[in-house]
Amino acid sequence: MKLLSPIFILLAITCFAAEIKAQANYTQLSNYQVYYGRATRFGQDWITLRRFEDHNRYHLLLVNPQTLETRTDLAESYQLTPLTLPQLRNIFKNSPYQKALSKAEQQSVALQDAGIENRHPQRNRH
Fold first, then answer.
1. Among 19, 32, 58, 78, whose CB has the most other CB atoms within 10 angstroms?
2. Which value, in Å, is the radius of gyration of the alpha carbons in the chain?
3. Domain containing 47: what range?
4. What pTM, to 2 d.p., does this model score?
């Protein structure tokens, strides 16, 4: 069976926290995709995790690697450097974000067979 990705778990938690903080009204959301990279604005580095379109403008799902703050914002507001996930993890290897990911990966467990250990007993037919 599949291993529940620690990255997915951390992303879900950070997205939930962002949802509580504020809700954006994306009425024409499309082209949602994984998009790893570095986004820089006013000297602050952010990690990009996802990219999507709304009303013909690209938006980013961002996380601050130092504070773990998450936000969505217009892509055009940042200087973007697309990266692979290994490159991203290496660049931010000493950040609290990377440390949290590593810890989550070490503590993750595989979900296998959803708790089912045996089949129904066979019935004897006479």
1. 78
2. 20
3. 29-107
4. 0.66
